[in-house]
TrEMBL record:
InterPro entries: Plipid/glycerol_acylTrfase (IPR002123). The keyword DNA-binding does not apply. Keywords: Acyltransferase, Membrane, Transferase, Transmembrane, Transmembrane helix. CDD domains: LPLAT_AGPAT-like. Residues 82-196 form the Phospholipid/glycerol acyltransferase domain. Pathway: Lipid metabolism. This is 1-acyl-sn-glycerol-3-phosphate acyltransferase. One of its GO terms (molecular function) is acyltransferase activity. The chain crosses the membrane at residues 20-40. The keyword Transmembrane applies.
Length: 266
């Protein structure tokens, strides 16, 4: 059978270095911009919305990603709480989502990111909630804070797989995101990003340029129609919808490993 998968153009060492330096440079610029504006008391939510999208677009241009969007995004300004649950097979999932989707979107991030100089301070100022993956009590407090942010109008982006997939296939889900959805009565927006794992495969420095990527937005799921006793049903329904977006069909069940902590940050 003739493969329709485009030929991968692997970047040489000079190009990889250029992308790395450019990515660090543009990230540092916007981190400093957020930090300075916050220190002066002049940082508003709409500023962060604009900065994150400009930053994200710049990162995608550096790798010359060719992204198309399929599906319709809900109206995030209708007063309801929204939780975007996205497949996670690349560091570029997050900027791709920021570019493709509207609203005051913030990533539910692992707490380790806040230890990075400038980045951590900027993320706190910009209302990016964290999750302590290896401290259950702190994780519960973190999720309570995330709930408050959702109630204030922020749309949270999270990866229910908890870590990046090396081959682009959907991994087992963790429960933290779904507890948050049930507690807030959120509308879950399932998103799958096809072929983005080719851009920068997980746990490698193999950068590939000019990759076609498709971000697929699925029909929303109203978590308020479920209760805590139906947590597994909500997870299964969300997974089925994401599999349909990712593969065009429902995949065979994947056995779940024993989790260290049920959170949903990478």
């Amino acid at each position: 059978m003739l493969s329709l998968q485009p030929i991968t153009r692997s970047a040489n060492l000079a190009r990889r270095a250029g992308v790395a330096l450019g990515s660090v440079g543009v990230t540092l610029y916007f981190c400093l911009l957020v930090i300075v504006r916050a220190a002066l008391g002049r940082l508003r939510r709409e500023h962060v919305d604009r900065y994150t999208r400009i930053w994200s677009a710049a990162l995608l241009r550096l790798v010359r990603m060719r992204m198309t969007v399929q599906g319709r995004c809900p109206d995030f300004n209708d007063g309801r709480r929204y939780l975007i649950l996205c497949t996670h097979s690349s560091h570029y999932d997050i900027p791709a989502s920021f570019v493709a989707m509207p609203g005051s979107m913030r990533m539910l991030a692992k707490s380790e990111l806040y230890r990075i100089p400038f980045l951590g301070r900027a993320m706190r100022a910009a209302e990016f909630p964290s999750v302590a993956r290896h401290n259950p009590q702190q994780a519960r407090r973190d999720l309570a804070r995330a709930r408050q942010m959702m109630e204030s109008g922020i749309v949270l982006w999270a990866a229910p797989e908890g870590t990046r997939s090396a081959d682009g296939r959907l991994q087992p889900f963790k429960k933290g995101c779904f507890h948050l959805a049930l507690e807030t009565g959120a509308i879950i927006v399932p998103v799958a990003i096809r072929d983005i794992h080719h851009v920068l495969p997980a746990r490698t420095w193999r950068l590939n340029l000019d990759q076609p990527v498709q971000l697929c937005i699925g029909a929303p799921i109203d978590a308020s129609r479920y209760d805590q006793d139906n947590l597994a049903v909500l997870m299964a329904d969300t997974r089925e919808r994401m599999e349909l977006l990712l593969y065009g069909q429902v995949a065979a069940p994947v056995p779940s490993p024993e989790p260290v902590l049920e959170t949903c940050a990478d």
